[in-house]
Write a structure and sequence with these properties.
ABC_transp_permease; transport; about 325 residues; cell membrane; globular; transmembrane helix; cell inner membrane; two-stranded antiparallel sheet
Length: about 325
């Protein structure tokens, strides 16, 4: 029951914001329009779920936003509208994600560099590489069959009318993440590594390996998010800018504890959807972007404070 109480607020926030959007713009009561909101939120939902693995392990990953930018830049610059390149471009991008995740994980666990510093360095390296390659300008064009992941949809569906591919991709990967986090031995080891690394190691958990795998998962989810985002918004030299902080905000809003040891996949995804819904609502109200950023900061502080309050209450009850 206590676990339900901890994760319930994010669903209440999501419900309240969606109702407010529908009141502000009745068009959002139509299923295809509401699914459009979920489509735009899909990249952030994927990033939040990927970030969850790292946060539950007791680490941070600040490189995911820059990795999204790299994915979009490579898809456009290398793909350059050639659909025949997609069949090898997607595996190559996933391979790049694995390499980035391994570097982050190995440097953090084997060289004892704090993950905040490691992934901050990776973020700057990736951002600098994209800026050097593109010169800050748009290069090429994402192939249409690759853009379909973000823009395509099944049509003619009763009641829904359109079912975006981006929503299906998000659902599949969230389902996979739910199984990994809650239905496998890795998921339990992840929680143990984040809650008490020393005790986990003494019980036979390879903490370093678990954390490295968490970084790899985070990077892979960032690659998928980049592919989807490239289809939604097109080519931009700053496509993933700020997404790392939005993903952490969403995960914390969904009940993930900074410091490790607790976090569930579906609430984290719901936190991302709630955050996107809040941004949509603020746009409908005509709120300026600087105010929106300040509001995001307030959400982070409030969510962390609420999480700390729940953790303190749980410790008092257990003692």
């Amino acid at each position: 029951m206590s676990a339900v109480l901890r994760i319930a607020p994010v669903f209440l926030v999501l419900f309240g914001v969606v109702v407010a959007i529908m009141v502000q713009n009745p068009q959002f009561t139509r299923p295809p329009v509401l699914l459009g909101l979920v489509r735009f939120a899909a990249p952030l939902m994927l990033l939040a779920v990927g970030e969850l693995f790292v946060l539950v392990a007791g680490e941070f990953d600040l490189s995911i936003g820059s990795l999204v930018t790299v994915v979009v830049a490579i898809a456009a610059g290398v793909g350059n509208g050639d659909e025949d390149k997609t069949w090898w471009l997607v595996p190559a991008l996933l391979g790049l994600g694995i390499v980035v995740g391994l570097v982050n994980g190995i440097v953090t666990t084997q060289l004892a560099v704090p993950s905040f510093i490691t992934t901050l360095g990776t973020m700057l390296i990736l951002s600098g590489a994209v800026l050097y390659w593109t010169g800050g300008a748009v290069l090429g064009y994402v192939p249409d069959n690759l853009r379909a992941f973000g823009r395509g949809a099944f049509t003619g569906i009763p009641w829904l009318e359109r079912l975006p591919y981006a929503v299906l991709v998000m659902v599949v990967f969230v389902a996979m993440a739910t199984w990994l986090r809650h239905g496998t031995n890795f998921g339990y080891q992840l929680v143990a590594a984040g809650a008490n690394p020393r005790a986990a190691a003494l019980s036979g958990v390879n903490v370093a390996r678990v954390r490295i795998f968490a970084f790899v998962l985070s990077a892979l989810f960032a690659v998928v998010a980049g592919i989807v985002l490239g289809g939604i918004v097109g080519v931009s030299p700053q496509a993933g800018r700020g997404y790392e902080f939005q993903a952490i905000s969403a995960a914390v809003l969904g009940g993930v504890v900074l410091g490790g040891g607790r976090g569930a996949v579906v609430p984290a995804a719901a936190g991302a959807l709630a955050l996107q819904a809040i941004f949509t609502w603020l746009n409908l109200l005509g709120v300026a972007d600087p105010v929106r950023q300040a509001f995001q900061g307030a959400i982070i502080i409030g969510a962390v404070a609420l999480s700390s309050l729940f953790s303190y209450s749980a410790r008092r009850r257990s003692s």
